[in-house]
Amino acid sequence: MDATTIVGELLGPAGWRDPYPLYERLRALGPVLPVDDFLLVVTGRTEADEVLRAPGAGVLDGRLRAEFEPDFLDHPGKYLLAPSVLQRNAPDHARMRSLIASVFTPRRVAALAPAVGAAVDGLLDRLAGHGEEPVDFLDAFAFRLPIGVICELLGVPAADRHLFRPLAADLTATLETVIGDRELAAADRAAEQLTDYFDTLTAERRADPRDDLVSALVATADADPQRLSHRELVANLALLLIAGFETTGNLLGNALVRLFEDPGTADALRRGELDPAAFTEEVLRHDPPVQLTSRIALADGLTLAGRPVPRHTGVLLLLGAANRDPRHYQQPDRFDPGRFGPDRREGRPLAFGGGPHYCLGAELARLEAATALPALLRRFPALAPAGPAARRDRLVLRGHRTLPVTLAGRR
User: Fold this and answer.
1) HSE of 320 in the Cβ direction (CA atoms, 13 Å)?
2) How do 314-318 and 39-42 pair as beta strands?
3) Is 29 exposed, middle or buried (0-12, 13-18, 19+ CB in 10 A)?
4) CATH number of the domain residue 329 falls in
5) Could you tell me which residues come within 8 angstroms of residue 127 by beta carbon, excluding any fewer than 6 positions away?
6) pLDDT tens across 324-350, in order?
7) Is the pTM of the predicted complex or chain greater than 0.85?
8) Which residues contact 76 (CB under 8 A, 6 or more apart)?
9) Which listed residue, 99, 103, 202, 317, has the most CB atoms within 10 A of its CB?
10) Shortest CA distance to 252 belongs to which of 149, 334, 152, 175?
11) Residue 139 has what DSSP assignment?
């Protein structure tokens, strides 16, 4: 079967349910494959990393999307994030990233550990209040934790935090490779609500500055609009909010499903015999919450694995496949946290991308997961599924819609 046919299956229900067999069918054809005259697909880790770091490969920014998608400017769901660091190339990307990156340095993230631990303990106390009744882990814990942490950093009031998970779920549909009319309409509504929200919040912080990231970015935008325009301000705040919990929420859900499937690993994590950072890293490799990203050749002259890549050729980077590349990871389909232990280091997975667009919040997501999962298992040693976990109909952002659990045997 050719690559075009397999990619078509990958982007449909079969890929949403389980993309990994399709990745292997693509891998058998080679690490870099043409899908059509203007699209390549990459399954190899070395090749994906090469593209992520290549100066000639950029993201599909708003200008190019407006050129290639006639309805781009008609849909707020499509263009809301276009002015953000996620969808900008040099030099604008570096200009904006420099304003935000200082909040997410390894040193500052490490300093957040006590606050993250306190947030985990508070949520576990609330979970305990559910008694013997089944509870949706995603709603009650997995998304509440990162939403609380990122909102605290930004300066979003606690009373507003319940608004964002449904808005993010609707808006992030536009990050998928295929989106239907109903989903697009919902994304447009979510984008409009998020824009209104951050327009209001930035006006409030302008009038009454506080010690938070929103106030700092408002001050920068007011002092020098060339450094950060209002549209860029709103787009980046929406991005930071959504990216700050979507990835981590899905990571926690994927991790718990793995623990249910592997009680021995759960016991080792509970007893402190397994490094939670190594376990988190293996979840990020084995079933990452972000399965793919894309780049586009910004000019002629780009090559990939010795293959010339003409200008405006798209490159689909299958991160979920790259993370199971047998040339890089031994027994890649086997879940083995030991591969990231002190004596065995096979290289971090590409779960958070690489190069100039490497995820700003990667270390915060790792901290949240490595803090939350052992604490959850210790507090509820008989934690168990209360029904089947329902997958989202998504490929790019892989996770679950619901994950019902029972806390029986809690202490």
Assistant:
1) 22
2) parallel
3) middle
4) 1.10.630.10
5) 135, 140, 141, 379, 380, 407
6) 999 999 999 999 999 997 776 778 999
7) yes
8) 187, 188, 191, 192, 195
9) 317
10) 149
11) I
